[in-house]
Amino acid sequence: MDHSAHADHAEHAGHSGHTGHEEHAGHAGHEEHHHTPGGTVSWAMAAQATLHCLTGCAIGEILGMIIGTAFGWGNVPTMILAIILAFFFGYALTLRGILKAGVDFRTAFKVALAADTLSIAVMEIIDNGVIALWPGAMDAHLDEPLFWIVLAISLGVAFVLTTPVNKWMIGRGKGHAVVHQYHH
C-alpha cells in the first residue's frame, strides 16, 4: 500500500508494504482524532469515552438493581442482571451513534463490541468490586442512602480507573478510536 497520500504517516518510515490502514481514509480533516500507535491522546478524549461508557453502565446497573429488587431476587442474580444490562446499554449507546451515521447494523454491532467491551468489563469489575467489598452495601435497599452513596462512589472509582485504560486503547487505535471513523 502506498502511504505517500498520508502525510501524517511520515513518521512510520520503514513500513512500506504495511497494510490495514484502509479505514483511515475517513479521517481526512480529523487530525485531532489521530489514533495511530504512539499517537497523542488527550486525557479529555479518554475521559469523554469513559463517560460515554459510564452512562450506559450506570443505566444498566440501576435498572438491573431495580428489577432484581422488584422481583425479590437475591444479591447474585440481581448483580448478574445489572452487569448484563450494563453491557447492553453501553453497547446500545455506541450503536445508536454509529447507526445514525448510516452504518449497517452488523458493522455497527462489530464496532460497538470492539469499542466498548474492554472498557465496560473493566468498569463493571471495579464498580461491582467496590459494592461487594463495601460493608453493608450488598444488603442496602433502594430506599436507603447507603445504597445510592456506595453506588455513586463505585461508579466514580470505576470512572477514574477506567479512563487510563481508554486512553491506552485509543492511543493504539482500539476502543473508542474505532468509533471516531464514523463521526461526521
Explain what the structure shows.
This protein is mainly α and 184 residues long. The protein contains five helices and no strands. The protein has helices spanning 43-70, 75-100, 105-133, 145-171, 176-180. α2 (75-100) packs antiparallel against α3 (105-133) and α3 (105-133) crosses α4. The longest helix is centred in the middle third of the chain and has 29 residues, at 105-133. The chain starts with 42 loop residues before the first helix and ends with a helix. Residues 1-38 have low confidence and may be disordered.
Report the strand count: 0
User: Over the alpha carbons, how many angstroms does the gyration radius reach?
Assistant: 19 Å
- Classification by helices and strands: mainly alpha
What's the end-to-end separation, in Å? 26 Å
- SSE string: HHHHH
Q: Give the rounded overall mean pLDDT.
A: 81
Q: Could you tell me the strand content as a percent range?
A: under 5%
Choose one word for the global shape. globular
Largest sheet: none
Q: How many separate helices?
A: 5
Which parts are unreliable, with pLDDT below 50 for 5 consecutive residues or more? 1-38
Helicity, in percent? 55-70%
Characteristic terms for this protein:
184 residues; mainly alpha; disordered N terminus
